[in-house]
Design brief:
By secondary structure, the chain is α/β, with parallel strands linked by helices. It has two domains: 74 residues, no CATH class; 256 residues, Aldolase class I (TIM Barrel). 30% of the residues lie in helices and 15% in strands. Strands 1-2-3-4-5-6-7-8-9-10 form a ten-stranded mixed β-sheet. Strand 8, helix 12 and strand 9 form a beta-alpha-beta unit. The longest helix is centred in the last third of the chain and has 14 residues. The chain is globular.
């Protein structure tokens, strides 16, 4: 069963306020003390949590917070958005930039790793900061949208490289930009003759579904072919609101795909993953990738063994409709691309994967 909000924080708000994405952002939770004494977080020492938030800050929308079962210490929503003392464990290991993205930045904010496509980090802001984020190194650094001048520099680079046929908008979350600035960027990119496709990577349908407005969807439609990738990691994240957000995009002819991350304690069983995949199929979202969690500094406690992911995929292939099966992959640094980890094609030398054994 999908989860509906258990409660709504900030009693006294109007329905109109709740459904306003800007109100949601304005009233987001930024500190553990705002969660109240009932939260299981307070089984931890508050000073330890303060130290976590000082290094890796916290932001959770009221909507996403409303999905948390605060009495469940293993709640899959809370695990993804509440600070954890393991994030600052000095013995936890991990890498600040596990994919060597900084090495491939060609102009500020623009990553060009693959010959025919590039990724533009158009903002450093997110609606909710996921504790497993592979760009935690960027948290707290110039948290704002890229300036018009920076966006122009990205567009100019793309325009002079004819082999780039696809541009991926990322961040942060590109839908933290206002509609006008986002449209300005989309218009500039689609005016480049060799740019054939634009892709948007955004978790707003999951953590801030009210950001997907009719006005936004109509605007995005003007820049098709445009593909939309989001990240549902657990069935609990599929609600009436998130389903409607995806439906609005699909109704405007914008395909929606899902890129889950395999997270220890969140979705690392065949049953949990199957529930998620069937839930995505019901809301017309295509399961695209299941990413092996990268060894990100501050997020290594989410990593599973590769054998866990392979066992899940073995089980899914035997029991779940082929339309629901994602590709299980690991993203390798240094431009080596995505490597399949599915049982028949995985040749990792080390149980923790080729990235960690190199």
């Amino acid at each position: 069963m999908k989860r509906e909000p258990n409660c709504r924080p900030f009693p006294g708000h109007t329905e109109e306020q709740w459904n306003d994405w800007r109100w949601q952002l304005k009233n987001s939770i930024h500190h553990p003390s705002q969660l109240g004494e009932g939260s299981y977080l307070f089984a931890h020492d508050i000073d330890d949590l303060n130290a976590v938030v000082e290094k890796y800050h916290m932001s959770v929308t009221p909507y996403y917070l409303s999905l948390v079962d605060k009495w469940n210490r293993r709640d899959p929503i809370a695990l993804q958005c509440f600070p954890d003392v393991r994030e600052i464990d000095p013995l936890a290991g991990g890498f600040e930039d596990p994919l060597d993205e900084e090495r491939d930045i060609v102009v500020p904010g623009l990553i060009h790793r693959y010959s025919d496509r590039c990724l533009a980090m158009v903002t450093s802001r997110c609606a909710t900061y996921c504790r497993h984020c592979d760009r935690k190194r960027r948290w707290g650094v110039d948290e704002e949208d890229a300036s018009p001048a920076s966006l122009d520099a990205m567009v100019a680079y793309v325009a002079k490289i004819p082999r780039i046929r696809e541009v991926i908008l990322s961040g942060g979350d590109p839908l933290m930009m206002g509609d006008d600035l986002l449209e300005r960027l989309l218009a500039s990119l689609t005016a480049i003759p060799h740019v054939e496709v634009i892709r948007i990577g955004s978790r707003t349908p999951v953590v801030l579904p009210m950001r997907i407005t009719p006005e936004l969807c109509r605007m995005l439609r003007r820049y098709r072919p445009l593909w939309f990738n989001t990240q549902f990691n657990h069935l609990c994240e599929i609600t009436e609101e998130s389903a409607r957000a995806c439906e609005m995009l699909v109704e405007e002819g914008i395909p929606v795909s899902n890129q889950s991350v395999l997270l220890k304690g969140v979705n690392d069983t065949p049953e949990t993953m199957a529930d998620l995949l069937y839930g995505l199929q019901r809301i017309s979202v295509r399961p695209y990738y299941l990413f092996h969690c990268e060894p990100v500094k501050g997020a290594t406690h989410f990593q599973t063994e590769i054998s866990v992911g392979r066992a899940i995929m073995e089980k899914l292939w035997g029991t779940v409709s082929g339309l629901c099966i994602p590709r299980y992959v690991i993203d390798l640094p240094g431009g080596r691309g995505k490597r399949s980890l599915e049982p028949a094609s995985c040749h990792a030398d080390d149980e923790r994967g080729p990235l960690l054994s190199s």
